[in-house]
C-alpha cells in the first residue's frame, strides 16, 4: 500500500480547490476527504501487515476495507437522503437522518483519525511523546506512564463498543482522557488528538476476549509525532 | 469468593450449533465472556453491599453501573443459550415446537417470514453492541421487537421470548463484518420450544435459569 495520506485527508472538493487559500480546517478532523462531494475511504500510509505483531494484517485489512468502507458508503447514502429531504423541504425526513449521520459520519471520522495516529513500530510507532506534547502530558497527567494507565483504564471501562481519546479541552487548554460510545465523534469543546478503537472488531481476530492485551500492545504502534502535530493545530 | 451467581451449563455441546455458530465462538462466548460477566457481577454486588453495610452510600452507588452491565450480561447470555438449540433438534422447528407463538407472530406480522425480516432489520440497525429481543409486552400482551444497547436487559415488565446477541464477539470469528449472514443463519438454531414455553408461561419462569443455590 503506497504512502498517500495527506496531512489533511478530509476536505470537500470545494475546499480542495481552494487549496492554499487557507481552507484547510485547523482541527485534527481535517484529516478526511470528500472527492466530488463524496466521502472516500482514505488510503493507509502503511501496509496492512505493517503493524504486526501488535495488530494483525488480517484485522487491519477487514477493519479498513470492510468496516471503514461501510461507514463511508452509509455516510454517503445518508448525506444523499439528507440532500433529497432538503430539496423537498421535508424537515421530518431530514431530522430522521440524524442517528445515521452521527453513526456513519462518526465512524468515518474516528477511523480516519485512528489510522493516522498509528504507525509501524519500526517507523514512527511507539516510543514516547516529545516536545510540547510531552510537556503538556507531564503538566496534565504527571507522567507519560500515568497517561497510559489512565487511557487503559478508560478503555477497559467501556461497556460495549466505543473509543477512548486523548483530547484537548479547548476552553481549559488542558489535555484529557475521554471515552465515546459506539461511533460518537469527539466534537464541541474537545479536539481529538489520539484515538484508540475499543470495538471488538478492532482486536477480536487476534486477541479474542483478552482485550487488555490489545490495549497493552497498541502503545507500540502509536504515532506520537502525528499526535504532537494535532496538538499544535488544536 | 464464589459469589451467588454461577455460569449456567449449556444444554448442548460447544460444537452443537455448527455450522451456524462455530465451536470456537461458543466456547469463548460461554467460558470467557459470559464467565466474566458472572465474575464481575458477583464482585460488584459484594462491593456494593459491603459499602452500604459500612454506611458509604456513595461507594455503594458507584457499583450500580457495574451491576447493571454485568447483571445484564449474565441475564442476556443465560436466556440466549436457552433459546438456541442444534438445527437437528425438533425444538428448532417452529411449526411443531411453537404453535401458539407462531400463531401470535402470524397475527402480529402477517407471517413468520415477515417477522424474521422485521427482526433482522432491527438487529442490523443496532449501532454498536447490543441485543435484539422478541418480547411479550407487559401492558398489552402483544408481541414486540425491541433492541437494547450493550448489556441492557429485558427486566422491566416485559417477558423475553427470543434473544439474539449482536455483540461482535457473538459472530466475528466466523462471519467477520458480514453480520447479515450471521442473522440469516441463526434462524437455523433458534429454540422455538423455549420461545413457546416463555410465551405461554408466567413471566417469572423465563428467568428461572438465573436462580442461585440460595434461591432454590
From TrEMBL, chain A:
Residues 129-230 form the Manganese/iron superoxide dismutase C-terminal domain. The keyword Oxidoreductase applies. Residues 40-119 form the Manganese/iron superoxide dismutase N-terminal domain. It comes from the Eukaryota. It holds the Pfam family Sod_Fe_N. InterPro entries: Fe/Mn_Superoxide_Dismutase (IPR050265), Mn/Fe_SOD (IPR001189), Mn/Fe_SOD_BS (IPR019833), Mn/Fe_SOD_C (IPR019832), Mn/Fe_SOD_N (IPR019831), Mn/Fe_SOD_N_sf (IPR036324), SOD_C_sf (IPR036314). SUPFAM superfamilies: Fe,Mn superoxide dismutase (SOD), C-terminal domain, Fe,Mn superoxide dismutase (SOD), N-terminal domain. It catalyses: 2 superoxide + 2 H(+) = H2O2 + O2. It is an enzyme of class 1 (oxidoreductase). Its EC number is 1.15.1.1. Signal peptide: none annotated. Keywords: Antioxidant, Metal-binding, Oxidoreductase. The keyword rRNA-binding does not apply. Belongs to the iron/manganese superoxide dismutase family. Destroys radicals which are normally produced within the cells and which are toxic to biological systems. This is Superoxide dismutase.
TrEMBL record, chain B:
PROSITE patterns: SOD_MN. The keyword Mitochondrion applies. Gene3D superfamilies: Fe,Mn superoxide dismutase (SOD) domain, Iron/manganese superoxide dismutase, C-terminal domain. It comes from the Eukaryota. Residues 100-196 form the Manganese/iron superoxide dismutase C-terminal domain. Its EC number is 1.15.1.1. Its main location: mitochondrion. It holds the Pfam family Sod_Fe_N. Residues 5-84 form the Manganese/iron superoxide dismutase N-terminal domain. It catalyses: 2 superoxide + 2 H(+) = H2O2 + O2. It is found in: Mitochondrion matrix. Keywords: Manganese, Metal-binding, Mitochondrion, Oxidoreductase, Transit peptide. Its cofactor is Mn(2+). PANTHER family: SUPEROXIDE DISMUTASE, SUPEROXIDE DISMUTASE 2. Belongs to the iron/manganese superoxide dismutase family. Homotetramer. Destroys radicals which are normally produced within the cells and which are toxic to biological systems. Destroys superoxide anion radicals which are normally produced within the cells and which are toxic to biological systems. This is Superoxide dismutase. It comes from Apiospora hydei. The lineage of its organism: Eukaryota, Fungi, Dikarya, Ascomycota, Pezizomycotina.
